[in-house]
Amino acid sequence: MASSHLTIFICSLVLLPLVFPSTAAHDETAPTEPMKKKVDVVVEGMVYCQSCKYSGSWSLTGAKPIPSAKVSVVCKNSNKQVSFYKTYETDAYGYFYAQLDGFKMSNNVLDHPLHGCHVKLVSSPLTNCSLLSNVNYGLYGAPLRFKNKVLRGTHYEAVIYTAGPLAFRPARCTPESHV
């Protein structure tokens, strides 16, 4: 009886690594590399059509989101050279989520997204609302803000920066009559 238990035990030691490879003995001399966490830089924001009533101001009262509007994210390094440029399109609700694939920092302080990246208006699909406005510096580049928004996974992290809401304005606004 003892020899049959010994045979089963020996067979299980031999077969276990074949059935469950993760339980196989590892070479102790081989260095194990820890899994590197992938960290993405993301910029998010909204694009609106500014109400005629508030055209010329920074007010977004009565503004409507613009689906399929285009914005650009421009990042410059500490030497003021463009190190990243890409355009992004808003979703059906005027929201954009710009994952900065390929963004690199050579200087962790001066090339940081809060210092070196801006969002600019590019184009609006609405013919009746396609003029650029400077709401939140959309003409020259809206600065980014960090609001402690981070998505975390086991081997992934996305640090999300926010650009203030941007707006196009209507080409033709009928003046209000004050009779």
Task: Give the structure's gist in a few sentences.
Residues 1-25 form the signal peptide. This protein is mainly beta and 179 residues long.
Give a description of the structure.
By secondary structure, the protein is mainly beta. 12% of the residues lie in helices and 37% in strands. It is built from 2 helices and 10 strands. It has helices at residues 2-19, 113-116, and strands at 38-49, 64-65, 70-76, 82-89, 95-99, 117-123, 131-132, 142-152, 156-163, 166-169. Strands 1, 2, 3, 4, 5, 6, 7, 8, 9 and 10 form a 10-stranded mixed sheet that branches. A hairpin with a 5-residue loop joins strand 3 and strand 4 (82-89). It starts with a helix and ends in a 10-residue tail after the last strand. Residues 4-24 have low confidence and may be disordered.
- The percent range for helix content is 10-25%
> Rg from C-alpha positions?
27 Å
Structure summary, number of beta strands: 10
- The SS-based structural class is mainly beta
Span of the ends, CA to CA: 108 Å
What are the segments in which pLDDT stays under 50 over at least 5 consecutive residues?
4-24
Portion in beta strands: 35-45%
Summary tags:
single chain, 10 strands, mainly beta, elongated, 10-stranded mixed beta sheet, 179 residues
Helix-strand layout with pairing:
Layout: H1 2-19, E1 38-49, E2 64-65, E3 70-76, E4 82-89, E5 95-99, H2 113-116, E6 117-123, E7 131-132, E8 142-152, E9 156-163, E10 166-169
Parallel strand pairs: 1-9, 1-10
Antiparallel strand pairs: 1-2, 1-5, 3-4, 3-6, 6-8, 7-10, 8-9
